[in-house]
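Q: Sequence in, structure out?
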Amino acid sequence: MEIMKRILLSMGTILAMNSFAVAGGDIVPAPVVQENDDAGWYAGLGLAYDRVYSIDKGWFDNSVPTQDEVGNVVGIVGYDFNEYIGIEGRISQSIFEEDYADLFTYSIFVKPQYRFRDKDDLENDDGYFTIYGLLGFGGVNVDGTDGDAPAHPDMFGQEILSDTSFQWGFGISYTFVEQPDDERYALKDTWSVFIDYTSLIKDADIHSTLYGYDPKIYDKLSVDGITAGVTYHF
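A: Exactly. Output:
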């Protein structure tokens, strides 16, 4: 029984030392480890204006029949490891197209970023800008459809392009900050609006020529676009 009492006393001493630190003869609470308020998950939605083209003639240029203008809805999920680096996944599907391209894309990006905020005055910080880059990998799928300048009838609903490649982009966002009671979560539960450019594929081989034009000229497609949307950091 005496040995058991000593064991229990020793265990109690160890547990007590985990809750208190002894400094200069005074017993003080052990320091609390602060959580990283720059880390966390976010999700969002966006609308994209995408170009699907064989010959690049600029934005909003309808003079080249192989350049289609496509509107996509974009879903976004990401995680910020800290204020400088994150990872982001995107998936998009066209909801309208001008000519021939039914577009589906998916991407996974490493996201370097820089936030313009005053860390010495966070209590009065009601918002801040962030610039960021997007570097990653993903896939693009283009099926033929019947628009103003449709794909060849044999390609309606059929695959024109399906390929994966390196993808990149850059953008800017603005985050609206509402200070909660717990200052450790100052950047949680915030909304951001953003706009960015992404290059999703460049000069990828297609499975069939477009409109029956010369395959030596119209044998490849590229896809890029501008996306605007909103994200929620939780």
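The longest helix spans residues 2-19.
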